[in-house]
Each structure stands twice: as structure tokens, then as C-alpha cells.
Request: fold
Amino acid sequence: MVKETKRITELLDEYYHNRVRMEKIREVILQLGNKKDLEEVESVMKKHWREEKRTGLLGEKEYEMLLDGIHHRINRLEEEKSGKATVRMARFLMKAAAVLFLPLFITTFFLLNNRTGKKVPTSIAYNEIYTPLAARTRFLLPDSTVVWLNAGSSLRFPLVFTGKTREVYLRGEGYFDVAKNHRKPFVIHTKRLDVTALGTSLDVMAYANDRTVRTTLIEGKVKVEKKSTGTYVFLKPSMQAVMDTVTGKLRMAEVETRYYTSWKEGKLIFRHEPMEAVAHKLERWFNCTIYIENDKLRKYKYTGTIEMETLREVLNLIQITTPMKYKYDRDTREVWLKPM
Reply:
């Protein structure tokens, strides 16, 4: 038992600090998902959680924001028809992730989709990392490309890049610091656009329910291609390509890139942005639902910066700086914005 506890502690420590190599991910998943070891895993995670709180890694304000962000997610898990052991495990995985901002949701994904007791396949051709609402994830791809996934986003990628290209599949928003390999272009597939790069830093936003698909280039050079027509444009640094999913029009403009990439540092920057668009981002950021009463408020141009605030603090800020007031139901996490 002592030996097993030590091994579990070592695995979790490697996972917490993002030191797990790709070839060891299966071992971590099997170990953490083993029913006979569940009590030991829970015990180790409880201890780590208490120690992290004592070290003061995050202040009370940060803890409030993080716990607020995972509150609704936990409730939804508990409502699912899953075993109590799986729910308890998910609770501790999400607590650890909230403290360390690490992609423990990889494990959660496999555990929740492995409730029937089926074994994880010996060889997995593709992996998919999903970031829930009110969270952000940073991880490394097999070619050493660094990826940040924004809230409510997922990335599907092969465990090993083979062939002449490195292809990944994005839903939502991701920031990519692409490892250079001139012989193997890096291709980001979205529902409507394909983005091709060699060694580049860029942000791609392609949420299913947004009217626009956006590619913002920080450095390097990329090709942005419309799937429906095959037409494409090339972007240079500080350029952005935006496609309207309704009209199909693709336009380019020079932008201040930090406004579109600050989310990976835990900050949202709005500059004269319609309140309707602001609301969509806040919904993903805090995992809530926001209703705006009329068209005038939806079109209201909002300017502001959000960093480490709780949902309640953001709503208070909006109420102070705009001609609108809010009503917030904490139980349902619903917000109504109305005229003053």
C-alpha cells in the first residue's frame, strides 16, 4: 500500500507540474482511473489541495474567482448518471486544475467517458483536449508546439505527427506558438477555415455559435483558406483575417494583437466592442448565461479590462460604467442586463 501511494503521488506530481511525457499519459489515466486505487488517489489529491492553499499560491480573491468558475461545472457532473466514485474523482481533479491551471481535464475526459469499466485502448491514434467553460489550458503538442485553449474549446491532434503536414482540429479558440519545421507545414482545421503555418505565433477563434471566424497573426506568416471556395489570403504580423459565417465574406485588417491574445494571460480587453459580443465572451469566461433586454443595449459599445475579477465584480463594474443595471441569479448562474 505504501509503495502504491508513493507511485500515485509521483504520477500526480508529474501531472500537476506538466512533466508527463506523451508516452506516459496512458499510464497516468489507467492509474487514476483504477477503482481499487480510488481512495488512495483521493487522499493524495486532498493533501495536495490543502498544501497549495497553505502556501498562499493564490490569494482569497483568486480562489473565489476560480471556485466560482468551476462551481457550475461540478453541479452538472453530479447531475449526470454516473457512479459516485467518478463524481468524487472529478471534484478533486477540477480543484487541482483550478489551482494550477494545468490540463487535468485530459484525465477527467477519459474517466467520465470510461464509466462502463472498459479499458483504455493500448494505442490511441488521436488525442483530444477539452477546456471547460470558465477555464484555460496550456499544453505541448508532440512536435513541441505550445497551445493555449480558451474556455469552451477543444483541440484534436495525433499522438505522433506523420506524413508531410502537422494537422490539428480546433473548435473554439486557441493560441498556437508553432514549432518551426519548414518541411512540415502546421495546419489548423476549423469548420469553415484552414490556417497553414510553418513557424508562427497566432490566435484562431472559431466558436460554433459565433457569427465570425477570426485569425490573428502575431509573428511569422500564415495562409488562411475558405473551405467552401478554396480562396485564400496570406497574413503578415499584426494582421487579422475575419470571415463572416453568414455572408461568407473574408476581410483583412491591421490590429493591435494584444486585444485578441490577452485571454491566455487571464485578461480580457474590450475596446469599443458591442455589448452583445462582450456578453458572449463573459458567458464562456464565467460559465454563465447573459440576457440583454433590448437592441440598444446589445449595440452599446463597451470599453474595459477584466483581470482576476469574479463574476459579481465584473457585473458591478459594468453597472458603474454603463447605462445599464443587472440582476444575477447565483443558483442558475443567469444574468439579466437592463437599462438604468
Remarks:
- Confidence is low (pLDDT under 50) at residues 53-124.
